[in-house]
Design brief:
single chain; 249 residues; alpha/beta; Rossmann fold; seven-stranded mixed sheet; 33% helix; globular
Length: 249
């Protein structure tokens, strides 16, 4: 199984940025990031099973199992410092991957968590996984980041909704476990990012990510909703570079 998609290979890059999509998302969400970032960073996006070019691969319903598989697949990419970026569901998965990597002695250079409540403060599940198709589509449209016209097509629904439902189930079944073998908190520096109009996470809630690391913690607020990082891509990329101390050009 090939877990990562790299739009532009950069043999001389000094570090790699591993990006984790949101629930219902795929690696293509980060395709434009390679051009937006400096050549010093090689961008890889995780392709979860059951969608896009992995449509035939079986779903994984357990977040920690998925994190372990991704962490294992990262082994060939650890010859350079690795930075993790996750949005929404991807933030929790990126955090769990960071825990696995630290436990292996491969501490990430940085962890960016976007549009998500802290892993240990998830709140009550919203029950989206159990909704009927129309209600599930309505929830996706409300979140943003989804093309309403595509979801109105019955054939596209049949293709897309199974993995969307799986992802919501994965998120809703996730529970934080501080126990061994993981070190709590991480030593990895963490930056939390959130849209100022995100209906699912406030700046105050996102600040809780700082409790999960003994390393440096920063929080950034951007204008926008849950998918603020689409219209604010330039600002998000700029902040990533600033946190990594990488020159813009």
């Amino acid at each position: 199984m090939i877990w990562f998609r790299c739009a532009q290979t950069r043999p001389w890059a000094s570090m790699r940025l591993i990006c984790f999509p949101h629930a219902g998302g795929s690696a293509v969400f980060y395709r434009s990031w390679a051009k937006a970032l400096t050549p010093a960073i090689e961008v890889h996006a995780v392709q979860y099973p059951g969608r896009a070019d992995r449509i035939r691969d079986p779903f994984i319903t357990d977040g920690r199992q998925l994190a372990r598989l991704v962490a294992g697949a990262l082994s060939p990419l650890l010859d350079r410092p690795v930075v993790l970026f996750g949005h929404s569901m991807g933030a929790v998965l990126a955090y769990e991957v960071a825990r696995v990597l630290e436990n292996q002695g491969n501490t990430p250079a940085h962890l960016f968590v976007s549009g998500a409540r802290p892993a240990h403060q998830r709140g009550e599940p919203e029950g989206n996984a159990g909704k009927d198709d129309d209600a599930l589509v309505a929830e996706m449209v409300k979140l943003g980041g989804s093309d309403a016209e595509v979801l109105a097509d019955p054939e596209m629904r049949e293709l897309i909704l199974p993995y969307v439902r799986n992802d919501f189930a994965l998120v809703e079944s996730y529970t934080y476990k501080p126990a061994e073998p993981f070190t709590t908190p991480l030593s990895t520096p963490v930056t939390a990012m959130v849209g100022d109009a995100d209906p699912h996470v406030t700046v105050a809630q996102a600040t809780g990510w700082g409790e999960l690391t003994s390393g440096a913690f920063t929080i950034n607020e951007f204008a926008g909703d849950h998918f603020y990082l689409v219209p604010q891509q330039a600002q998000v990329v700029s902040e990533i570079l600033r946190q990594l101390n990488v020159p813009v050009s």
